[in-house]
């Protein structure tokens, strides 16, 4: 949920009326300060019953996905940027840098890319926001940075107000990534847009980086500072999180994750899974109504998501085993609130997604001791070859996630998938978005189909269906004696075309 704030890089239309909202804000702060004084003098007043209003400020990176993939196609730049992003927005980093009148907001949970602060009633949010943004700008030179503030008895309450303000463009800082219009110097070998300022150089303690290319200030930071030292120290925060959660889930040490996509896929295809809880705002409202302490809600959602993720990764580990280097064959990129970006070998993707979609609702619900409806989750899955530019994969995953959410009306756990090799960038018109319960229902039939038909037979049928040669496809099924296998899934509502598309990466065991 809390990651939403980093996604909604809204328009800057609010710039037309900053003076008015600033006056309003200052008026409110004066009132809040007055209430605070009343409270300390112990005089009960009408206002004293509402002094609970606290002030929160979120300063964060917008369009995190595009920032992470800014340096182009490879995983190392993405990971380096992910490390830099986590570090620059971590509580630890800010402990000694907090502006006057601000402290770390623990109610927000840890979210990569967002500095969430609570302010003293007399603090001036504009000044605090400007100070925080300038530090972030130095740390993440090419990131878009915005700040929004809100008031409420708790962060969750203020968060609602903050979301509305973002939607209306009422940002108190809106600093898009600087554009370098004319590159007279040699452009950066990575992002190709900013001037190169030096080698993305190898140092003696950092032999893993590229010393043949020149980078701009942002790319150099992600390649050098973000990938410094041994491989374990430059792994994104998400890897540390999943490593810990997997160890707890399996009650055994987790040996860590592959170094890159090639190792992850063992030379074969990979799947990026981008999952996000549905209507988490509604869930928060219901939890509030049932009396869940407000400070516990965001934390509970985060923990529930992490547990479901660990359980799904554990299923992959159980089925596939560790890879040739003894690593768990999954690669988490981002985990924040109910947001998950993770890559798995293509042949494990359906298993992973079925487990995540199936496990998430109860996993989150179990974090709360009040009777709450179980929230649902949607996922976009992209099957790709490790040589595909990662920026394209990430964009495609976001589109498929939206498709899944639209298809399930935000009410059911469902998944939309795209195979960049077989489908290109557009799914076929008849492509469905399976729901969690569909995957469970179709599981036996799909497994029988994959085991009972040759890959070449399925490829032939797919080719015929793509060319609308339906009768010939029927003849081929009958000739190969596979019609009954397809029929049983058709009887369960899954068309032959969709069966073939899903079967392509369906696990055989
Ligand atoms: Zn660059």
Tally of domains? 4
Any idea what the CATH architecture of the largest domain is?
A: 2-Layer Sandwich
Number of helices: 19
Give the strand content.
5-15%
Average pLDDT reading? 84
CATH homologous group name of the largest domain: Reverse transcriptase/Diguanylate cyclase domain
The ligands bound in this entry are:
zinc ion
The CATH topology of the largest domain corresponds to Alpha-Beta Plaits
**N-end to C-end Cα span:** 34 Å
- Tell me about the biggest sheet? 5 strands, antiparallel
Q: Which ranges are low-confidence, i.e. pLDDT below 50, for 5 or more consecutive residues? A: 1-20, 32-51
Total strands: 12
Outline of this structure?
The chain is an alpha+beta fold.
Describe, in plain words, how this protein is organized in 3D.
Helix 14 links the parallel strand 11 and strand 12. This protein is of the alpha+beta class. It has helices spanning about 5, 20-40, 65-70, 75-90, 90-95, 125-140, 155-165, 215-225, 235-250, 260-265, 280-290, 295-320, 350-365, 390-405, 435-450, 455-465, 470-480, 485-490, 495-505, and strands at about 55-60, 100-105, 115-120, 145-150, 175, 200, 215, 270-275, 330-335, 340-345, 375-385, 415-420. The protein is built from 19 helices and 12 strands. The strands form 3 sheets. A 5-stranded antiparallel β-sheet has the order 2-3-1-4-5. It starts with a helix and ends in a 6-residue tail after the last helix. The chain folds into 4 domains: about 5-175, Alpha-Beta Plaits; about 180-235, no CATH class; about 235-435, Reverse transcriptase/Diguanylate cyclase domain (Alpha-Beta Plaits, 2-Layer Sandwich), CATH 3.30.70; about 435-509, no CATH class. The chain is globular and about 80 Å long. Helix 9 packs across helix 12 (about 295-320) and helix 15 packs antiparallel against helix 18. Bound molecules: zinc ion (ZN). Zinc ion binds near residues 191, 216 and 218.
């Amino acid at each position: 949920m809390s990651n939403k704030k980093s996604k909604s890089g809204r328009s800057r239309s609010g710039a037309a009326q900053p003076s008015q909202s600033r006056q309003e804000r200052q008026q409110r702060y004066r009132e809040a300060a007055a209430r605070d004084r009343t409270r300390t003098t112990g005089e009960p007043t009408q206002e004293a019953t509402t002094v609970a209003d606290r002030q929160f400020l979120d300063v964060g990176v917008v369009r995190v996905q595009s920032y992470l993939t800014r340096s182009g196609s490879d995983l190392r730049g993405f990971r380096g940027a992910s490390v830099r992003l986590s570090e620059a927005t971590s509580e630890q980093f800010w402990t000694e840098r907090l502006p006057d009148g601000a402290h770390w907001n623990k109610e927000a949970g840890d979210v990569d890319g967002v500095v969430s602060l609570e302010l003293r009633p007399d603090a001036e949010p504009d000044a605090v926001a400007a100070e925080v943004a300038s530090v972030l700008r130095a740390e993440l030179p090419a990131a878009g940075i915005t700040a929004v503030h809100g008031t409420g008895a708790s962060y969750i309450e203020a968060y609602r107000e903050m979301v509305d303000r973002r939607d209306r463009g009422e940002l108190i800082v809106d600093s898009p990534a600087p554009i370098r219009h004319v590159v007279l110097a040699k452009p950066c070998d990575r992002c190709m847009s900013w001037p190169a300022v030096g080698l993305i150089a190898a140092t003696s303690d950092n032999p893993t980086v590229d010393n043949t290319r020149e980078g701009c200030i942002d790319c150099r930071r992600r390649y050098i500072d973000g990938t410094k030292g041994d491989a374990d120290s430059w792994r994104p925060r998400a890897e540390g999180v999943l490593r810990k959660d997997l160890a707890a889930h399996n009650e055994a040490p987790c040996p860590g994750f592959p170094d890159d996509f090639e190792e992850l896929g063992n030379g074969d295809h990979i799947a990026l899974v981008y999952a996000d809880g549905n209507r988490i705002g509604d869930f928060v409202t219901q939890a509030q109504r049932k009396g869940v302490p407000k400070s516990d809600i965001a934390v509970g959602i985060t923990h529930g998501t992490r547990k479901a993720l660990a359980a799904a990764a554990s299923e992959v580990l159980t089925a596939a085993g560790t890879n040739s280097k003894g690593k768990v064959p999954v690669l988490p990129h981002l985990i924040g609130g109910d947001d998950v970006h993770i890559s798995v070998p293509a042949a494990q993707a359906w298993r992973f997604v079925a487990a995540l979609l199936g496990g998430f609702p109860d996993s989150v619900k179990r974090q709360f001791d009040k009777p709450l409806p179980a929230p649902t989750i949607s996922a976009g899955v992209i099957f790709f070859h490790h040589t595909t530019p990662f920026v394209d994969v990430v964009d495609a995953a976001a589109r498929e996630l939206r498709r899944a959410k639209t298809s399930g009306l935000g009410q059911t756990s469902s998944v939309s998938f795209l195979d960049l090799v077989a489908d290109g960038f557009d799914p076929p018109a008849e492509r469905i978005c399976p729901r969690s319960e569909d995957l469970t229902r179709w599981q036996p039939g799909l497994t029988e189909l994959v085991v009972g038909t040759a890959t070449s037979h399925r490829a032939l049928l797919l080719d015929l269906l793509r060319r609308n040669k339906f009768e010939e496809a029927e003849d081929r099924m009958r000739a190969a004696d596979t019609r009954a296998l397809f029929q049983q899934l058709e009887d369960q509502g899954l068309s032959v075309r969709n069966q073939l598309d899903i079967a392509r990466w369906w696990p055989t065991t």
